[in-house]
């Protein structure tokens, strides 16, 4: 990983932004809130991020299939949340596909991160 990308990655964590192809993308917390609560139908199931994580990211959630507890995603409650870029990318990939039936765009990721960090 080059120094410029490392610097952009650190900046992303501080400023609630996402990076796509070395481009810095500012997040919009209100758009992130709307996406977080947006209900979609995938494979006959109505889903949203809040289905498992609750509408308030400061609250613990629960996986709908397994019942496994999910820690709050808001860094104000769970300081360890959103600190590992590899985990962030992994969970965005999995959860966007499950919730939206597709991979999230870089803008959607930036918006959701801004929303989560605003709580």
Q: Quickly give the CATH architecture.
A: Orthogonal Bundle
Instruction: Tell me about the largest β-sheet.
Output: 2 strands, antiparallel
CATH topology type: Cytochrome Bc1 Complex, Chain D, domain 2
Query: Strand-and-helix sequence, N→C?
Result: HEEHEEHEEHH
**What structural class do you assign from the helix and strand content?**
alpha+beta
What does this structure look like?
It is a single chain. Helix 2 packs across helix 5 (106-117). With 119 residues, the protein is α+β, with helices and mostly antiparallel strands. It has 5 helices and 6 strands. The chain starts with a helix and ends with a helix. The strands form 3 sheets. The chain has a two-stranded antiparallel ribbon. It has a single domain (27-117), classed as Cytochrome Bc1 Complex, Chain D, domain 2 (Orthogonal Bundle). It has helices spanning 3-15, 29-37, 49-53, 85-100, 106-117, and strands spanning 17-20, 23-26, 40-42, 45-47, 61-62, 69-70. It is globular.
